[in-house]
Queue: 4 jobs
Job 1
Amino acid sequence: MLSASINTGRQVSVKNSFAVPDDFQQRYDTLKRSLADIGYFRRGSLVRRFTLCGKAGCACQASPPSPHGPYFQWTRKVRGKTVTVRLTREQATELARWIEAGRELDRVIGAMEKLSLRATERALQALPAAARRRGVAGGRGKSANAG
Ligand SMILES: [Zn+2]
């Protein structure tokens, strides 16, 4: 079993059972550390709306119209249904930060996934070919779909 020893002075809690190029490992470790900086987050989106009330003589009916709002809403899907929550401007400002934190989380996880795929693919390729048993003629056995 090969374990890459990285002498950077910090603790590495999970060691790979296979060798990974140093630059892979460094980028992966950087991504993992950046996860620790992400605070609370929320999914969904922040919507800023203006409305027209339809009352005659209201400024929203003037030309040019001066609509009511902005009104802020947090919308998200819950079990397939869109759920909307009204927010004040101050709440919307906070929510925008949490939504951005959620997007940052997705970016970091996405980058980790790409890097992981490449690193683990190298590990698979490094194994003896016979151990991998790809595409046995005759279609016997389960097909392992590697996506
Ligand atoms: Zn109006």
Job 2
Amino acid sequence: MQTENMYDTDKENLNDSSNSSKNGKTQVSTSPKHIFNQQRTDYLQWEDYFMSVALLSAQRSKDPNKQVGACIVNQENKIVSIGYNGMPMGCNDSEMPWCKSDPENKLNSKYLYVCHAEMNAILNKNSSDVKNCRIYVTLFPCNECAKLIIQSGIKTVIFKTRTAGKKYFVSFEATQKLFEMAGVEFRRYLPQREEVVLDLGMVRVRTAFVSWKGWKS
Ligand SMILES: [Zn+2]
């Protein structure tokens, strides 16, 4: 773990050798400089990274009941699109219904209007296509999104949960059937860590690295 003291003593150790030989044996220096030269070991693994992006995207959703996110990644581990569930472009979110059903007006149901996260991610891609890509989704895709996933050429689906209301049971079964027939691999996401914490409270460059006199906190 890096500490403030480490930066404070950087100057004293500029000429330190990370490894030194004594009595024919190589000794590993524990000087701050040596520690600084080592890579971090607690960095985000790919799977955690991409699912985190999907989860973060879900936070953009205005749906009061279900927030879903998706992240599409190509074979080079590059993100080519993200998406979350929301109303179509040009449709005023504040004027659209967000309830599941309204016995007095069948048109007052979000299901008739909301674009799912997978749909938005596929349509909003920043690459020419998403062939052979994989998609990270916070919720197992419904059968409508399954069709889109298959037709777009996505080959792998990594989902976080398959828990949803009864309405989706048949839909999920159809999705599974479609994926199996079309040869789309799907698997549950296995996290390598419990949580990812994002501190948005303050972003400040360490003064040990930057000595800009005009800096004002
Ligand atoms: Zn869907």
Job 3
Amino acid sequence: MPPRRRGVYWWHRIGNGMDNTVGLKLGGLTLDVPFFQASLSGYSDHAMRALARRFGCPFSLADMMLAKSMTHPRVLRKPCFLPGADEHPVGAQILGNVPATMAEAARALVGVGYDLIDLNFACPAPKVLRRARGGALLNDPDTVIDCLKAVREAVTCPVLMKLRIGVDHQPRSRENFWEIVARSIEQGVDALVIHGRTVSEKYRGKADWEILAQVKARFPAAMVIGSGDIFEPAATPELLKRTGLDGFIVARGAVGNPWIFRELRCVWEGRPLPAPPDLAEQREVMLEHFHRILQGYPEKKAVGYFRKFVVGYARRHPERKRVLLTLMKAETRAEVEAGIDAWYRRA
Ligand SMILES: Cc1cc2nc3c(=O)[nH]c(=O)nc-3n(C[C@H](O)[C@H](O)[C@H](O)COP(=O)(O)O)c2cc1C
């Protein structure tokens, strides 16, 4: 049994001789590797989560859900909002700004089987900000903390918070960020997941992991998980070593690329990186992904939805542009399957 440290994380010696954090403890939920799949609105549905899991991801967050909607039993019973029987552990992320509604939604989501609740105070979408939700709340520490307290009291499962490093780079935003970090830790948040960009930056530029390192340095007993630009599995042990963070989440790097989890697992288990998937494996996984999507949507919608992943999948193909041209034009199930067959049949 490796020595426990502060009861929060532990250290192993793995293949490359470096000390790496290999596990992640989210309250009562323990993951055997220090990463999981982020919540990605419009992407992280059952299909994406199932593939992530198949390739070694230990835990995923479902698409962000509006707390207000989740308090309506009829909405909550829609299959797209329910966790799959075979995908535990899985977390639900909620968006809102009314503590009582957040608490009611959290209770309802745990009631239908989610294992963890994540509160979104990070979303930069204009329609979310206009309604004073998501990232807008980073300038309203009292509401953030009231939401956390209400949810904390409503459920016994782990409760996480997703933050960005502020609304913008103004000193007032930074002060609010630090206030939220300090007060949420005091209130017993099980982990902070922090995207190293401000809300105004959206996805521009590079994520600032130095601020995330400062959070961990100031609050060493807290569980701090970083987010931003995780595309290179081999670089992640060094990233955690340099910043002292406990873990990281995988977001855009997993879109049309479930293999990133297989690669990350190898890296963190001290095994050599696997060979990249050949065309035959890419074909098989793309078809599986598409067919899983078809189980949840009518054909026309499924075809459009799958297109969002094609950009990621095509990146591995030597004829990327031509693959994109074919699959972006496909409008029916048969055309998608024929397009995949045409470009990926030759292994
Ligand atoms: C299309 C898209 C949708 C996203 N949706 C969510 C979301 O619903 N909830 C959330 O906390 N973060 C969301 N994010 C942010 C990611 O979880 C992640 O923090 C961010 O993309 C930075 O990580 P990356 O640079 O590795 O992609 C989204 C990001 C993208 C690109």
Job 4
Amino acid sequence: MKYIEPHAHMVSRTTADYEAMALAGCKVISEPAFWAGYDRSSEQGFHDYFSLLTGFEPQRAAKFGIKHFTWMCINPKEAEDVGLANAVIDLIPEFLKRDNVLGIGEIGLNKNSRNELEVLERHIDLADQHDQLILVHTPHLEDKLKGTRLIIDALKNFSNITTDRVIIDHVEEHTVGMVKDAGFWAGMTLYPESKLTARRAIDILEKFGTDKIWMNSACDWGVSEPLATPKAARMMAQRGHSEEMLDKVFYQNPKEFMSQNSKFTI
Ligand SMILES: [Zn+2]
């Protein structure tokens, strides 16, 4: 089955992972900017990371026949220092011109702090000014419900940002309805230990339908599984879902969302 992995942190992954994903049918990977496994001490550290995401990582993916796209931001986990965040945000416009950059992400909230919210609003403003797609990270566990509400409110304050051009990722049972009712795209992240299992994600699809939703593996530095996405597709097939439905969730939907940026081609 051909599929798109719409959210994967490949800088944390080996070539063996790229090979396994290619063998499983992966055609495209999209990699939001996030934490790099350590806190960066200056904006220069982010400049180097953005250069890697727009230079070396697409070359690494190409060796396995996979197209690599990316998203630019300072992630909420490192956004508590507003001075640093502003310096990083000032670097981003230059990178938005690169061939494999699809938009601003993954922005959002981590601990729902006032500083994180201020940095989130600056990112949304940046997306607004440069007419960019947005990929949103929502907080973990007990902070998720409140954080998702705060993020939706922040997005709604920008009248030019249309819901079709924003995906809110890491939704779970208690937040997917809120995201879909507000008109945004929703992402479901499959993790062995936290966030969603494939079984829970498929339950959600069966309840909420397959429009404007995708699944991803995130596969970062923690316990995670780069093949979580195709494994969920196999479980969906075992539960009797049609090939057309699998193609919609794992290929057509991410293609439809990301194709809103004309740089996205397969
Ligand atoms: Zn991520």
